[in-house]
Amino acid sequence: MSSFLLGIRLGVTEIAAHRFRSGLSMLGIVIGVASVIAAVSIGEGMRDSVISQLGEVGAADQVNVRGEPRWVKREGDWRRNPEPEQLTWQDVRDMDRERSRGRVKEVLPEVTGTLSAAAGRVSRSVSYLGLRAGGVGARKWHLQSGRGLAPLDAGELVCLIGSEVARDFFPGATVSSILGREIRLGPLRLVVVGVLAERGTSIFRDTDDVVVLPIETAQRRLTRSDHLSRIVLQLRSPADAPEVERSVRAVLIANHKGGADFRVDREEAILERIANVTLLINLTLGGIAGISLLVGGIGIMNIMLASVTERTREIGIRKAIGAANRDVMAQFLMEASTVTVVGGAIGALCGVGLGRGLAGAIATFLSEPVEPRFPVPVLLLAIFFSGGVGLFFGLMPARRAAAMDPIESLRTE
Question: Do residues 264 and 270 lie in contact, with contact meaning Cβ atoms separated by under 8 Å?
């Protein structure tokens, strides 16, 4: 225990005596640890943000079905799909059978697109979303004013607008005064019957910059087709997702010649992709951090070799008065570990600051708030790993010091 404490004390003394040299040797350790901490904190923060958004839009208990893509993979090669199959009302009716089996609460068809909209002197492109009656509430969207879509609205020229559309197209108007006014969407003149509460941009859709209209109106008067953009199945329990997905795929294969190419997504698949992306980011930055730690370890080894040379006489005196080789070796190993642990601690603090700075930059430039997470086990692991780097790269200088002949060492001036 005394040798352990002596090694730490001598390590701190060496850092204090050679501040500039010790600082340079620790720089690689600091950069490596800071990179790891920042990467993990942003990765975990982004994952939490996505999971939170999944819950807000109700995607945590959904299975989403989309039509065939225009490009499909055949025998390992991507090929253009000349006539992609689209979702239809027959698919909705067949998928609706899952409600009778108790696994699905709602089957929600959608029609989406982008068109030019205008009101007064304001004109620009907006996204539109065609929904059935009750679709707004099913998606956990809230109304700031007015009402949602009712069954009697099917095929009618009515709409709900997001808060951003309300601000841009009706500047200065109160929310209640917007109700009953008209907004032109492509060739249609729609009466505003409701204004959606502000939610902000999510990874799925900007619900503040959208015009919601009855799906029958969108099909008959805009797309002039019975095709659907998406079908959302809201589950009674997320545990039912695998069974519902299998049933959905069976319906698609039965109703379409290329049903196997339809895109069916559920929460677990989305989270798995997020985890893979996060892991890739962490591995990439981890590789960079590993190089920094390698460079830092080499720097530690150099400073310890220089220290052994400078303290040859001190080593000779210690061995002459009875210090064993293992005592000398332990002393230099503890000194190297102390330097790297101090560097790791500084790196962890810098990583916390860097993580918060990156989160602020993401929120500013991408308008996507991310709350960085700094798990205590990761911080401690980074510091202990730094100590391991010190032990590994301090081994050769320590062995050289332990192998010195005390007589030859005492002759050194």
Answer: no
Q: Please state the pTM of the whole predicted model.
A: 0.59
Residue 268: per-residue pLDDT: 60
Mean pLDDT along residues 11-15: 67
Sign of torsion, CA 127 132 135 137?
positive
Please state, in angstroms and as integers, the Cα–Cα distance from residue 30 to each residue in 41, 217, 283, 290, 359, following that order.
Answer: 16, 61, 18, 11, 20
How far apart are alpha carbons 333 and 4 in whole angstroms? 10
CA 368/CA 360 separation, integer angstroms? 10
pLDDT of residue 10: 64
Is the distance from CB of 374 to CB of 354 less than 8 angstroms? Answer: no
pLDDT tens-digit map of 53-88: 655 555 557 888 887 766 656 656 666 666 677 888
Provide, rounded to the nearest whole percent, the portion of the chain with pLDDT above 70.
Answer: 81
Q: Between 395-402 and 267-310, two packed helices, what is the crossing angle to 10 degrees?
A: 30
Per 3-state DSSP, what percentage of the chain is helix, strand, and coil (rounded to 5)? Answer: 60, 20, 20
Cβ neighbours of 174 (radius 10 Å): 10
DSSP bridge partners of 201: 206
Q: Cα separations (Å) of 158 from 188, 213, 252, 319?
A: 10, 6, 32, 93
Residues β-bridged to residue 79? 72
Closest CA to 178 of 211, 155, 130: 211
Q: Which two tokens stand for residue 372?
A: 């960085």
